Amino acid sequence: MERANIQLKIDDHGKGAFVVEKNNERLAEMVIRISDHRLTVYHTEVREELRGQGIADQLLATMVEYARKHQLKVIPLCQYVLAKFKHSPAKYEDVWEKDWHQKKDAEA
To answer: How far apart are CA 102 and CA 56, in angstroms?
Structure first.
């Protein structure tokens, strides 16, 4: 499988996405926000023509690599990322902020 050209596009407020683009057209994205030493993942989407090529897994690997490099904790609000984290918790233990949901529930 060929590795996609994934870029991080982020604004001055920490909002952005890991993206795969071709000819200025976004073909895949993992929407994120970075704030307070946390990287929150909101949504992952891969366009139909790229599905089945492992692009979402590559976006996930790139995001986790970035989080590790910058010592960020990941809050997986995206169902895809949360499912991957739950499936292999030991693989993501160092970056997964598992108790975030419990903290938010306790505050409510």
So the answer is: 27
Cα atoms in the Cβ-side hemisphere of radius 13 Å centred on 48: 0
d(CA 102, CA 104): 5
Instruction: Provide the whole-model pTM.
Output: 0.90
Domain assignments of the chain as residue spans, ordered by start: 6-107
Six-digit token pair at 94? 């160092």
Q: Domain 6-107: give its CATH architecture.
A: 3-Layer(aba) Sandwich (3.40)
Instruction: Indicate whether 9 pLDDT > 70.
Output: yes
**Numbers of helices and strands, H then E, in the chain:** 4, 5
50-88 pLDDT, tens digit per residue, is 999 999 999 999 999 999 999 999 999 999 999 999 999
Site of tokens 């306790």: 106
Handedness of CA 68, 74, 80, 83 (dihedral sign): positive
Determine the 3-state secondary structure of 97 from DSSP.
coil
